[in-house]
Amino acid sequence: MRTLAFGFPRLGEQRQYKRLLETFWAGHISEEDFLHGIAELKRERLQEYQGIDLIPCNELSLYDPMLDTAVMLGAIPRRFGAYTGLQTYFALARSKYALELTKWFNTNYHYLVPELEEPVFRLVQNFPLEDVRFYRQLGAETVPSIIGPYTFLRLSKRARYHNGSLASIAPLTADEFAEFGTAVIPVYAELLRSLAADGVSLALLHEPALALDVPEEHWYLARTWYAELSHQGPAIWLLCYYDSVADFQRYADLPVAGLGLDFVSNTENWRSLHSAGFPTGKTLIAGIVHGRQVWRSDLRECLRLIEALHSFSSDVVIAPSCPLFHLPITVAVENRLPPGLAERLAFARERLAELRLLKAAWEGDQGAIQQVEATSQLLRLPFGRNEQVRRRVAALTETDFQRQPPAPERYRLQALRLQLPLLPTTTIGSFPQTADIRRLRSQYRRGELSCEDYDATIRDRIRHVIAIQEELGLDVLVHGEFERSDMVEYFAEQLEGIATTEHGWILSYGSRVYRPPIIYGDVWRPHPMTVREITYAQSLTNKPVKGMLTGPVTMLVWSYWRQDIPVEELAYELALAIADEVRDLEAAGIAIIQIDEPAFREGAPLKRRDWGHYFRWATRAFRLCHAHARPETQIHTHMCYSEFNDIISFIAELDFDVLSIEGSRSKGEIVDSFAALPAGSIRVGVGVYDVHSPETPSVDDIEAILRRVLHLLPAESVWVNPDCGLKTRRWEELIPALHNMVTAAQRIRQQLIRAMGKEQDNGTP
Ligand code: GLN
Ligand code: ZN
Fold first, then answer.
1. Which residue, by CA, sits nearest to atom 5 of ligand 1?
2. Whole domain around residue 145: which residue ranges?
3. Domain-embedded: residue 740
4. By alpha-carbon position, which residue is closest to atom 4 of ligand 1?
5. Measured in whole angstroms, how far is the alpha carbon of residue 334 from the centre of its chain?
6. 685 part of a folded domain
7. pLDDT tens for residues 601-635?
8. Residue 663 — pLDDT band, cuts 50, 70, 90?
9. Which residues contact 701 (CB under 8 A, 6 or more apart)?
10. CATH of the domain at 467
């Protein structure tokens, strides 16, 4: 039995990857020094993988593996001109005209969406071969790791031009899918032949898109494509992860030498294997240790599974369930975890150790067998339980999920209380997180700044941001979120049952990193988390200040979470903590509370048939946060950067009072789907300002979006706001943008009021 691992984090233990990229982009290091640093990181990876039988290469992307694939295949939109290496590469990734960035499957990693123009491909840069040679110089024979043609095309978009300018970008139609496939397969074939000519005998092709809903004709295409690719030289092993394969039988029938199966995400692959068996003569690559969650594996169970798998295939290879880059590098550097937690965790390096240990134990190594037993016993002991919290969840009844009275009635009461103008203007919550704010927070963390001094500075910032919003004429204000490093981590630090790490960084996209918290036990709130800052902000103004909370689904989805209780129960625990905070904010006189759920869509399973279960608990968790709120308290939520059109009905189920949603990139198209809901049933602020663009939207741009919205929704239910929080913007950029936003809203408001006046003069109701 052999071991295989893949996707080890490229960040580096000291976040060297991030530093290299950022200093290179800033022009502080030369291209030569940059590439030198990258080569060093590649060498370190080899050390990490030591002792694993099959070591991959072509993994250290300089920005994103999908981008690498697009560049490799020559799928470079015409606006970038001829490919000139790194310059074009980073222009594709991060220039003003960069490719669209979107979420990778149901993870919080973001990839660049290849934009396909014509069905013409060409092997522009042979990254896999370059890397095979790089590692060979170091004496290592590696297996090239490549995104497969199905996943590449499935995640790409087709760009259409009209009279030379970009007219639309949309997923490939069924015909285009076949056509582009026919064009790209010869290039994949050429790539494989070039590898074979260099002595490569095996290639890993990643096809996670086969875990999505795969239409019948796609299986036919995949079969044809792989029939072609499988006789170019190297044996092909497919890897499919993040969920079970869409159709086990069709997957098993693909004409390749090895098939990867994720046995961790759920039990479906295992059940299918049992009923359908495994094709003879193929290698079974078994994903048996978790690539996305941080819990140590129950190795005794893994050994049992390995044993069972051997009755299906004589060639079993054990591997992580998915690429390891969803995990931080190592637990060993964490010194401030709650007692007892570290020995229950495995990050990427520890996962590799598990694979080595499993192999040794399987081969009869006594020391390894003892270690397997010891961890299994440790993991069986209960950890992080709080009976009171468990009882609170168990005692929930339907009334805890159903706010009264119904939304339209509540909204009327809220209008009386708030006295807002038509088309109220507001922002999403955060204001610029400038370098000095970040410095201040880290000084405070390190104990270099007293609590009093820290608080005083935060108050200063709040005062400043309230004054600015009043001056701009915004109607509903925010406190700016200066005390928060991150919308999930901030709450995680204050809740019991959740740990935060010191060094557990993972890549979100490009060089951007974050530290997912670890939900290890029952979650509860020992003290109020936001009341101090919000009430201080409210004390400075007569306008309403929104209380800002992160919702339970986002808290969960952007963290690692325990697997020993059903996920919905954990979501309800989080929701109860938020509900406690809602109650305290209300008691402190706060009239509007926003519960952000930007990850609401991302948490959805890959296959639609599994959506029912997810959306049921996700919507119930959200409703639990506000079911006992007073009718006159206005509950807002916010969502962004996801495909919302197909989940609008689930969004409406959340039963909030007002939704702010991103929509400026689609110029308000999202309202089309809102318009399909029962009339007047939703009050919504469609983002009118793309906060990720450094450009200032003009008053006319914003008016145009608003008019579109008003065409479809009644004016009484329309709010005006940017797409998302403003924390990544600079003050100089956002002041004029917000000014234009307020001006546009005021202009339309005046017109609406005049029009209403006229209607009254004419005697029309
Ligand atoms: N309230 C948060 C902010 O403004 C929301 C962030 C988000 O949607 N990701 O920063
Ligand atoms: Zn947002």
1. 725
2. 54-84+98-253
3. yes
4. 725
5. 24
6. yes
7. 999 999 999 999 999 999 999 999 999 999 999 99
8. confident
9. 688
10. 3.20.20.210
Q: Is 274 a catalytic residue?
A: no
From 302, 240, 225, select the one nearest 272 (Cα to Cα): 240
Q: Are 666 and 686 in contact, with CB atoms under 8 Å apart?
A: no
In whole angstroms, what is the distance from residue 553 CA to residue 108 CA?
A: 13
What is the pLDDT at residue 172? 94
Residue of 310, 503, 692, 739 with catalytic role: 692
Q: Is residue 516 within 8 Å of 559, Cβ to Cβ? A: yes
Separation CA 73–CA 326 (nearest Å): 26
Asked whether the predicted pLDDT for residue 255 surpasses 70, the reply is yes
Closest by CA position to 719, among listed 705, 699, 698, 734: 705
337 domain residue, yes or no: no
Tell me, using a 6 A CB cutoff, whether residue 484 lines ligand 1: no
Residue to mutate (ligand 1; options 481, 482, 483; most atoms within 8 A of CB): 481
H-type alpha helices, 648-730? 648-652, 670-675, 699-712
> What is the longest distance spanned by two Cα atoms in the chain?
93
Spacing, Cα 198 to ligand 2 middle (Å): 48
Question: Does the pTM of the predicted model rise above 0.85?
Answer: yes
Domain boundary (221, 253, 285) is at: 253
pLDDT band at 675 (very low <50, low <70, confident <90, very high): confident
Atom index in ligand 1 nearest the CA of residue 550 equals 1
- Nearest CA to 7 among 86, 96, 105? 105
Q: Is the CB of 533 under 6 A from ligand 1?
A: no
Ligand 1 centroid vs 722 CA: distance in angstroms? Answer: 11
Chain Cα centroid distance, residue 608: 18
Residues 6+ apart with CB under 8 A from 560: 292, 293, 294, 295, 516, 517, 518, 519
Per-residue pLDDT reduced to its tens digit, 353-405: 999 999 999 999 999 999 999 999 999 999 999 999 999 999 999 999 999 99
Q: Is the CB of 428 under 6 A from ligand 1?
A: yes
Question: Which tokens in the block code for residue 761?
Answer: 């003069």
Closest by Cα among 719, 690, 669 to 168: 669
Chain-centroid distance of CA 287 in Å reads: 22
Reference 129, options 85, 191, 59; nearest CA is: 191
Tell which of 191, 220, 253 closes a domain.
Answer: 253
Domain count, the chain: 2
> Is 410 within the bounds of a domain?
yes
